Amino acid sequence: MKLRLSGPSAWWAQRLSAVLMLLFATFVATSLVAHPVAGYGQWRDWVAAPGVSLAFVVFFGALLVHMWVGLRDVVLDYAKPSLRLALLGVVALGLLGLGAWLLVILLRLRA
Amino acid sequence: MKLSISRYDPERDAQPFLQDYEIEPAPSDHMLLDLLLRLKAQDDSLSFRRSCREGVCGSDAMNINGRNGLACITPVRGLREPVVIRPLPGFPIVRDLFVDMTLFFRQYHSVKPWLVDREPAPDKERLQTPAERDRLDGAYECILCACCSSQCPSYWWNPDRFVGPAGLIQAYRFIFDSRDGATRQRLDDLGNDPYRLFRCRTIMNCAEVCPKGLEPVRAIERIRLKIAGIQDPAGGLDTHRPIAPS
């Protein structure tokens, strides 16, 4: 699925993911200013709350998509043609790994 | 006046080298091409393309003090000395300042730079309003000199797959021509491939060096908007006063 993100869909994905990340960053900043968190316990409870968890998942999803489009552009521009597919595979695996790790962290928090 | 000109004879030299020349410009030598022709009278082996000597044919495009331009409209006075003249960067060198333009023209032809008829073909003229004709301003003036594509880093890295600013400004010229019947196919051809158009990173070297003051980067931006289905601005492309090498 990720490898098919190409052409105009990549262009849209990069912009939409940037907007999502901006919205999330604003949301987190205003939340923490309005209700400052004192200590790990409060932070953990806040992140584990269903709405906030979902916001985190959406943010990191957007971040991974954004990273994919950006790194793919770098590989397509600069890497030797014979190495491109391999490099794209490595990047894709790395990003999928990061995504899996994120899910594990969030699930552990809720447990 | 001191010049350093790139020389390369494939039969004699392993690789190009810079050869120094010293020449006194005559009062009638206004442009760099005048100087080069005077040099050729001294050293007959110096080879370069030239034709119209007035900046409309694009033959004498070369890299002058690091910046692409047409020798025939580059003023001699004000050139930093020694004037370093190299062939267009990134293109295979045939000899001295001659470069191989085959791949450049192949990219140009690949965007189908001709009107594709609507079915059925009209009985009379293909009419066009002045507003529709205005959309072609800033694109049809391209002389295919290759100054833009040979100064584009994205074109250097992928000359066989990225169409390049020159090809893309011509693609714009036909995509936005109201008389053309193949707009959808043109957009699909450029939009569905990650390389043909999307390697453009808006570096803007193309607009910087165009000797006719055109802005291929803006044309590419408009094609992107059209591919994305976003309304693009009316009117033609902006042009600017060309900046000659110095």
Describe the structure.
The complex is a heterodimer of chains A (111) and B (246). With 111 residues, chain A is mostly helical. Chain A has a single domain, classed as Fumarate reductase/succinate dehydrogenase, transmembrane subunit (3 helical TM bundles of succinate and fumarate reductases), CATH 1.20.1300. In chain A, 86% of the residues lie in helices and 0% in strands. Chain A has helices at residues 8-34, 40-48, 50-78, 81-110. The two termini of chain A are 30 Å apart. The relative contact order of chain A is 0.13. The mean pLDDT of chain A is 88. By secondary structure, chain B is α+β, with helices and mostly antiparallel strands. Chain B has 2 domains: 2-99, Ubiquitin-like (UB roll) (Roll), CATH 3.10.20.30; 102-228, Alpha-helical ferredoxin (Fumarate Reductase Iron-sulfur Protein, Chain B, domain 2, Orthogonal Bundle). In chain B, 28% of the residues lie in helices and 12% in strands. Chain B contains 8 helices and 7 strands. Chain B has helices at 32-42, 102-110, 130-134, 153-157, 164-175, 183-191, 205-209, 216-228; strands spanning 2-7, 17-22, 61-64, 67-70, 83-86, 93-95, 98-99. In chain B, the strands form 2 sheets. Chain B has a 5-stranded mixed sheet, with no helix packed on it. In chain B, helix 2 packs parallel to helix 5 (164-175) and helix 5 packs across helix 8 (216-228). The model of chain B has no long low-confidence stretch (mean pLDDT 94). The A-B interface holds A 6-8, 10-12, 72-73, 76-78 and B 154, 157-158, 191-195, 198-199, 201, 224, 227-228.
